[in-house]
UniProtKB/TrEMBL annotation:
<protein>
    <submittedName>
        <fullName>Uncharacterized protein</fullName>
    </submittedName>
</protein>
Length: 98
């Protein structure tokens, strides 16, 4: 790590280092994460309901830099292909649901 010292990640920025990104002091990330967690849990239950395994594809709760909830979907290509097929089957072919 480079910088002036152990406090380098937050020197003069009013931010805290956090894994793969930065957390801004004073932003309520917990509330956004809770909302995202509820949505991710709902999507994970739906994925299980159509026979997918969470080891193949899953929704993961997170937040953006403003503390808003974000749900990311990560999965193996075959499982994501199955989800795409399911969504295409309810699509009207013009970018909307039928």
């Amino acid at each position: 790590m480079t910088g002036a010292g152990e406090e380098w990640p937050s020197e003069g920025l009013d931010v805290l280092g956090a894994g793969s990104g930065l957390w801004v002091s004073g932003v309520d990330y917990v509330a956004g994460w809770r909302d995202a967690r509820e949505a991710a849990d709902r999507l994970n239950r739906a994925l299980l309901g159509v026979g997918l395994e969470l080891s193949e594809v899953r929704a993961v709760a997170s937040t953006d830099e403003n503390g808003r909830g974000v749900v990311r979907v990560a999965g193996r290509t075959n499982a994501v292909g199955l989800i795409a097929g399911l969504l295409e089957s309810v699509s009207d072919g013009e970018g909307g649901a039928s």
